[in-house]
């Protein structure tokens, strides 16, 4: 989108696209047009710099012909990185997550850098996630007002993340300047902190082009920026266990473990004429986990306590969470995995849960 009208909940159902709302029709102010031209000009400057990444820009470029001030530095993602499938997946997962969180507000985010830079959506997102109201103006048209709102929102984020040792790799200026790398760092931190029911792709990195004007000429360099590491590192669970070692160094032994666990669970599930052949998928909805706990502890699980045929992600998470509660009631330690990890078909998480059961119940007939 070439301009960024203010985001605001649509006044009536059915859900409206923000561009169709009353506030959306008020967009296109001179300030926004100027910002759009600046971003467009910077992209052109960046493309020229990318074509000669280690050389100054053409000598006939005059300072007044560009939007960069002397010694000013700006960054942009290398176009090749934008086409990386893992990068695209990260952007899509975060977009879908934001829209799911804000669905009741009838806010539709289509493009992260265009829709989040003024603080409006970030305010609503943080208020939903943290279940608190921020003392900021609802709608701000001026750049000063937008930055003041962003300052308030980011200070609230800082207060939440600071005790957990997060490196804050964003600022008011970078978010308002539509720096996508900074916006992604912020969203990954929020999704991780609030344990969003999503699966972020691991080891996502991008090449960032840094463009600086010196003596009227544009100079560029490339740096690699890591956006995500592993799920466990991002969740702060750094301790490694036997399954980390199996996955990293002994895939042949991993297959032996999988076969042993399949034999173990089928010994019980066969009593209900059920059978598991794929650990990766058949425990993801939580039904077999709940039934398995009932069989191992020798009790009947009332059907109204879980979804026998879950359809939505939330219903599956409910089932796995309920199975975890049954495990705690049975004297087992709280599983290291999250219910969302199991639902998202994370094999390592599923194996950890099943192996936990195996160590206690392997001799149960």
TrEMBL record:
The keyword Cytoplasm applies. One of its GO terms (biological process) is substrate adhesion-dependent cell spreading. Residues 62-72 have a biased composition (Acidic residues). Residues 1-81 are annotated as: Disordered. It comes from the Eukaryota. Pfam families: CH. It is a peripheral membrane protein. GO terms for cellular component: actin cytoskeleton; focal adhesion; lamellipodium; plasma membrane; Z disc. Keywords: Actin-binding, Cell adhesion, Cell junction, Cytoplasm, Cytoskeleton, Repeat. Its main location: other. It is found in: Cell junction, Focal adhesion; Cell membrane; Cytoplasm, Cytoskeleton; Cytoplasm, Myofibril, Sarcomere, Z line. One of its GO terms (molecular function) is actin binding. Residues 88-195, 255-362 form the Calponin-homology (CH) domain. Residues 1-12 have a biased composition (Pro residues). Coiled coil: none annotated. Belongs to the parvin family. This is Parvin beta. It comes from Sciurus vulgaris (Eurasian red squirrel). The lineage of its organism: Eukaryota, Metazoa, Chordata, Craniata, Vertebrata. The gene is PARVB.
